[in-house]
Structure formats: structure tokens, C-alpha cells
TrEMBL record, chain A:
Record family assignment: Belongs to the amidase family. GatA subfamily.
Active site per the UniProt annotation: 81, 156, 180
SUPFAM superfamilies: Amidase signature (AS) enzymes
Organism ancestry: Bacteria, Bacillati, Actinomycetota, Actinomycetes, Pseudonocardiales
Native source species: Actinophytocola algeriensis
Region annotation Disordered: where it falls in the sequence: 134-156
Keywords tagged on the record: ATP-binding, Ligase, Nucleotide-binding, Protein biosynthesis, Transferase
Protein's name according to its UniProt entry: Glutamyl-tRNA(Gln) amidotransferase subunit A
GO biological process annotation, one example: translation
UniProtKB/TrEMBL annotation, chain B:
Gene Ontology molecular function terms on file: ATP binding; glutaminyl-tRNA synthase (glutamine-hydrolyzing) activity; transferase activity
Protein name: Aspartyl/glutamyl-tRNA(Asn/Gln) amidotransferase subunit B
Name of the gene encoding the protein in the UniProt record: gatB
Signal sequence interval, chain numbering: none
Organism for this UniProt entry: Actinophytocola algeriensis
Functional summary from the UniProt entry: Allows the formation of correctly charged Asn-tRNA(Asn) or Gln-tRNA(Gln) through the transamidation of misacylated Asp-tRNA(Asn) or Glu-tRNA(Gln) in organisms which lack either or both of asparaginyl-tRNA or glutaminyl-tRNA synthetases. The reaction takes place in the presence of glutamine and ATP through an activated phospho-Asp-tRNA(Asn) or phospho-Glu-tRNA(Gln).
PROSITE patterns: GATB
Keyword set includes Aminoacyl-tRNA synthetase: no
Amino acid sequence: MSDLTRLTAAELADKIQKKDVSAVEVAQAHLDRIAAVDKTVNAFLYVDTERALSAARAVDEDVAAGREPASPLAGVPLALKDVFVMEGAPTTCGSKILEGWSPPYDATVTRKLLEAGVVILGKTNMDEFAMGSSTENSAFGPSRNPWDLDRIPGGSGGGSSASLAAFEAPLAIGTDTGGSIRQPGSVTGTVGVKPTYGGVSRYGLVAFSSSLDQGGPCARTVLDAALLHEVIGGHDPLDSTSIDAPVPPVVAAARDGARGDLSGMRIGIVTEFQGDGYQAGVTAAFVQAVETLKGLGAEVVEVSCPHFDYALPAYYLIAPSEASSNLARFDAMRYGLRTGDDSANSAEQVMALTREAGFGAEVKRRIMIGTYALSSGYYDAYYGQAQKVRTLITQDFEKAFESVDVLISPTTPTTAFRIGERADDPMAMYLADLCTIPANLAGTPAMSVPAGLSDEDGLPVGLQVMAPALAEPRMYKVAAAFEAARDAASGGALIHRVPELEA
Amino acid sequence: MTAATVLDYDEVIERFDPVLGLEVHVELNTHTKMFCGCPTTFGAEPNTQVCPTCLGLPGSLPVVNRVAVESAMRIGLALNCEIAPWCRFARKNYFYPDMPKNFQTSQYDEPIAFNGSLDVTLEDGTVVTVAIERAHMEEDTGKSLHVGGATGRIHGADHSLLDYNRAGVPLIEIVTKPIEGMGERAPEVARAYVSTLRDLLRALDVSDVRMDQGSLRCDANVSLMSKGATEFGTRTETKNVNSLRSVERAVRYEMTRQAAILVEGGSILQETRHFQEATGTTSAGRRKETSEDYRYFPEPDLVPIAPPAEWVEQLRATLPEMPSERRKRIQADWQLTDLELRDLVNAGAVDLVAATVDAGASPAEARAWWVSYLSQEANSRGLELAALPITPPQVARVSALVAEGKLTNKLAREVIDGVLAGEGEPDEVVEKRGLAVVSDDSALYAAIDEALAAQPDVADKIRGGKVAAAGAIVGAVMKTTKGQADAKRVRELILERCT
Ligand SMILES: [Zn+2]
């Protein structure tokens, strides 16, 4: 394995600017790594060698000409979740129904990345339309967890997390509707951040649940995630729900946190997210993390958020309801798969046949749940009630943040489970997002940072840090301080203990 | 299909009370669509005014057109509505090929304007106040063209073509409360309401209000209840009503059709019907097995609209003079009797006459042209007055030529005919047709001398002081000059010659 693929994004960007290495060499090293291991990992659905190298060449030309870098990440490779559109690159969202569709436009996130000189390597695998916690719902086969190839890399953004843990890319983009950035980060020993709702534009993000979807950065270090956050964040007039405020200064916060002083910081443990149902190794790693935070000078207390227990059921009404409407457009009339288009079938029959053939089981399940929940006579009992729970959860957060600066919990109750283990048990699968969903419902920021390895299986455990809306800097500061302390305690970054993949 | 039985109208009125509900869709004349920056020009090449958002491509998002919101509020204010201090868009979910997202972004239980009224004046001067339920914003759908079938409908077609140029064009839907107690005048009220609303929207300059192009569309809900009943009957909704006249005919037909069913003891099916222009009847639309459940929910891709009071007041200040007030003012300014005003209004000529007066004609002249001569012309062509190929400035020019003595009234009508025939501006028609009044006195003297010589006895009478005898000579001169002389001037010259 080339050493270049082991470096952080910050280190790579620095070396490129200092001409220690060219952006083309960096891109090529990652493309080579993908060629060597992705048959095994299946993180990528599409790799665009030509465009990646051409973007890298442009960065090298800037460096040669002595021009200011387009951004602090100029020349750094990145894996883009296949839910963001990029002009001319196939976008599938892990579904057969988008077969053959080549988007005619760039997502705002894609545009910002390209303008920042970030080298987009390709599109990563995901659960179909971001519905799932394992990538097993992808129409193109599951991605594999580099820590144990028989296990899932989390989901829906398992392609992005696997690409980071497999050293195929130092940066990735994910989307988090109920935990799809944080849970994959947790089970692959990487960092994943869900920004405040509206902090990163959704324009060009193929919608699953519009009021919950939030794009965000994925990386192997907190600082890298912060650097990427500042590139993709910010107001976008094309997204009406985008926040009209500057991106919070998360890079400065991450650098500040790395100095290792959390004195004066009040941290709350969510009472509801511990105990039964949490794997022993997860609990142990979490308890250890709490001790580490105290050691950094933080005051740690318990805080109850009583309505968090209702987050999961509320989520499984709101998200499918919006999805049932968002996914209605996949009807074979304008793009994507078309099934049964012969003179015998009407347009309505072609729509039905295409949707039958093009959507997977989990997507169909959620469309049905959502259609039911929005039906007249049921709306108030289901969608309406779920919205009330949403308000109560937001109030729980507000109340908690009156007494603490950030909240913490395990990111997910277990380490990576085996491929196939929960495939036939939707409820078990849904529990993977138990701790992550409240932040989506409240629109508040949250992130997962590697906490350690579980004693019983040696697999990564994630620490979730949650902050009030637009208070990302606090969250990054705590995560960066924790990361530095833990790395120091265990003699290096956790990610370097991932087993070497056979090329 | 056999024609439905209808009941004689008088009998309908004897036995039933009609209840109407009118839903008018107005396409706004904004330059761009409701939720994207695409242009809204009517009649462009198919699928040339589209983008990811109005095509509903995956990942695209809507952004509200501020001008459309302002137009919606101005319409609401002009209809005496309350403006919601906070409202949202909602998704109306149903599958249809010409709807790119398979949901329409509309408003549901939170319309931007509600609880208003519109005063409608009927032909005999009766004023009816129509209560307005709501006015809400939504986006238009695309258009399907069904190829190969006999009917142009989807049933039986070989294939269909879709044009998304119209998809996303801003629409305002204006819904009345039930209009009751109109009795036999219900069809007339329906027509007058749409006509008054159209005038109002035109005055607001928010829409082209062209029923023939679909920028103003009316769906007529009609139901009957037996005399003395308190509960409404089952209603039908008639679509495809594309002119004022059709509104009246459709309502009237539905009343007679429903009555025929009810008197036979049948029941009315709640359904959508289509008005057939050619026969003046309505026919059943596609019947649905289950009632449509649109699964409305608040549109999560848009933020609520909360117009501050100052904004509403600013918009209120931009409201133009309302057509009803304007009529009162015009009546006073032009000194019209009630009857004259009504004729003017009924002819749909208020704006045209006013514009003609603005272009320099006298109110009396302008009125004479539009209300009598041009109205007849429009009737015989089956057009609305405003659709005639002549403009107020052209009429004003003809009027000026008459005032200057360059045209007689008879010649003026020929000039108007020429303009209507597409021969150009009034002056060009005068030139081309050689219609100018013969104002060359020497030419007239020659014609007069000739006529006096031809009728010496008449000439003697005139010379003898019988001035009235001059008429015969005037007639002769007019004949020689093919009517292009000013009879008054000819008379003066004859008398001058004979003294
Ligand atoms: Zn558009």
C-alpha cells in the first residue's frame, strides 16, 4: 500500500502545496488502491479515473503557477455518496430504478467540491435511497467492513465509510437522515458529522426524507472532517431550507480542541441511551470515553431526555411519509428504468410495472408505510402524532442544553453486525439508529468519533457528540480533544489498527 | 353513447334550487415559473422552458417566486380577503404522467388568502355578492398530447407526448363559497362572476386572463336540491369550460341533466364532467373506483410564508382602481345613463372605450364605435370584442379623421372594415382604398355645375329661394363623387352658386 493513502487530508493538502508530491500522484495512488481492493470492499459504484486525474492536474497547474490554492483541501481525493448528483456521472442511489440516468446538473455540494479543487474519485455504494443501516439494501450488493469483511460497514453511507477505512479515499461525503453518516462512521472507526439541518445544501441530493436529510463530511480525523465541513457548508439560494448564516468556524474549533483542554465544558450523558440492549464492549468503551473526557477537564453529568424513547417510532412515520411522496417521481416517464413499455400497457401500467421491478423490498415497505400514514383518516393518528413527538424531542434538547454544552452517547448500540444477520428482521435493523435519530428530528448537529475497540470482538465503537443548532464548534472541540487524548493513550490513531486488506 | 335526457328549464326551476361552486384557476403572468427560473412564454417549442426543478429531476428543489406570492396577495386583497399571517405549501399526491414529481405543490388547509367577497352586477343591474372561500397558490401541470386515438383523450391513443413547458407555471385557484338562492339566474350569475373576476384580474395586471389559451380556467360545481330542502344535493364538477358563454351553458345544462335524473328518482353521481363546446352538453369523465386520497402534507422543501403586515399594506397600496369603482367614475365622467353604462359593460367594452378615449376620441364617439358597430362585428364573427383585430388607438384615429372632416361617417365605417380586414393602419386604408373626402372645392363646383345643368328646374327653384330643393342636387353630387364628399360642404357650395 502506498504511504500516500495512509495520510490525512490535511497532510496531503499540505504536501501538495509544498510540492512534496503532486495532486496527480495522490489521485493515482488512491485510484490504484481502489483498483486493488474495491473488488473486495465494494465501496464504489462508479470510479471516474479521467475526471479525477484531470481535476488533480488542474490543482498541480495552480501550484506550479504559484496561485493561491482554491481551498485548504485542493488536490485531496474524495468519495461522493451516490445520492448526490454530478453532471454526466451516473447516479443510482443504490437503486435499479435510476438505471441509465445521467444527471444534467451538479448538486451544490458537488459544485463546491469541484470549485475547492477537491478530486472526486467516484460515487459510493449505499442502501437503496439511503434506507438502511448496512448497505445490504443496495441493488448492487453490500459493501464490506474493512475491519471484518463478513460484517457490514454501516448504512446507508456504508460505501463512504468503507472507502475511508479501506484507505481508498481520505475524505467522503455522506447524508444523514436517521444516522446514515454517524452509524457507518461508528462501525468503521471513522469520523462522521451530521451538520445542523440546513447547514449544507440539499440541492442535488436525491431526497429520501426532505425534513431530515442532511449532507455532511466523513473523514478519518476530526480536523479533516472540519476542513471538509467548511468547504461544503454555507447558504444556498437554491435550497429554501438552507440556513442564511456563515458556516460555523469548525476548523478553528477542531484545532482548539486538539490542544486537549476541556476545562469549563459541561458534558451531559443521555440517561436513556445506556443499559439494556447495549453491547458490553460498547458500554465499556463509552465508560472509558467518559473517563477520558473528565481527564481533559470536562464536567460530566447525566441528563434525561425522556422523549428520546419515542424518537424511533416517530422517525419511522415521518421519514416513510415523506419518502412515499419523494419517490413518487420514479415512474419511468422521464428517466431511469422503464418496464413493460409495449403497446398493450397503459402509462399507468408501465408506472406500476417499473416501480414493481425497480424498487427493492425495504423501499417498497417504507413507501407503503408512508402512504398509509398520510392517508385520510390516519394522518392525525400517525403523521400528526409523530410531528408532536418531534416537537417534544426538540424541547428535550433545548432543556438539556440549558444545563450542558454538549450531550454524549454511544453512536450505535452495537459494533458492526454480520452481513445477513439482520436482513430479515427490519426492527433489529432499525435499532442501529436508536441513538442517532433524535438529532435528525430536532435538526441539531451531531457527530461520531472513534471511541475505541470493543473488548469482545475487537471492532470499533463510536462516541456520539451532540450540540445545539449551529453550535458545531463545541461539538468539534470536544471530539478533537477526545480524539487526541485517545490516540495518545493507545499509541496512535485507531484507524491504523484496521487489518491489512489482501490486494 | 345516447344523449342524456334533460328536463325543461322552467320545470327545473319550479322543482329545484341550484347551488353553485366556482373554482377559477388563473395562470399568473410572472416572467418565471412558481418554483424555478424558467420562462413562462405561451406557445414555445415543447420542452424548451424546463430545468431540473420543473422537470422534477431527482435532487432538484423548489424556490418560491416572490412576485407570484405578491400577485396572490394582491388578488386576495382585491377580493376583500384576509391575508394569512403565516401559511404553508402542501403536497397534493397523485400519479399522472404530465405531473413531473407525481405530486403538485399547492396549498391545502393554510391558503394565503381567505374569506373574501366579490360584487357581481347582472345584466339588468342587479348586484349579487359572491362570497369567496379562499385563494391559494399552486403550480400548473405539463400537458399531454394523446396521438392516434379518435377522441384526443388518453383512451384509445397509440402513444402520448408530454410537454413540460407549462409545468410549474404559477396558478392561483380562487374558490367561491356555495352560491345559493339564485334560482333561474344561476347560469347568468356564474357567467357574470367569471366575467367580473376576469375584469378584476385584468385590472390587477396579474394574468393574461385568456380563457381561450387556458390562462383563466373555470370548473363549475353544480348541484340541485328540492325546493324547501336544507341539505345540498350531490354535486358534479364540470371542467373544460373555456369561454364565458360556456360557463353559462355548462351550468344550465347540468341543471337540466341532473333534474331529469332526480325527477325519475335517480341519484347524481359525484363525478368530474367535461363540457362539450359543440353540443353544449357535459359528458362523464373517467370514473374512479375509489374517491381520490391526495395524502396532503406540508411541503418540507419550502419554508412557511409569513408576510409581515407592512408588506401586505404596501401591496394594498398598489391596488388599482377596482372595475366597479371605475365604472361609477366613468359613468359620472362621461355622463352616462344607467342603461348606457350597462350596455357598455355588457358589451365588454369598458376598457376598450376608455383606452380609445385616452387615445384622443370623445367618449360618445368611442362608445358609438365599440358598443354598436364593432360589437355587431364581434358577434357575427363569434369573437369577444377585445379579440377583434383592431386597437383603441386605431379607432381613435378614425374618429379623429371624422372630426377633421377628412372622413364621413360612412367612409369611416369603410376604414374600420379595412383595418379589420388587415389592410393596415387607418391612414393606409384611406390611402389604399381612396376613401378621403373630396375637399377640393373646384372639383365639387364642377360636379355641382353639372348637376344644376342637368336639372334646370331644380336649379330655378333654389334660385327662387326654395332652399330645401338643394337636397336633390346634393344627392346627385354625392353620387358623382361616390359618396366621398362632405354633404354639408356640398350644400353650402350649392347655395353659394345659386345666389
Ligand atoms: Zn424550470
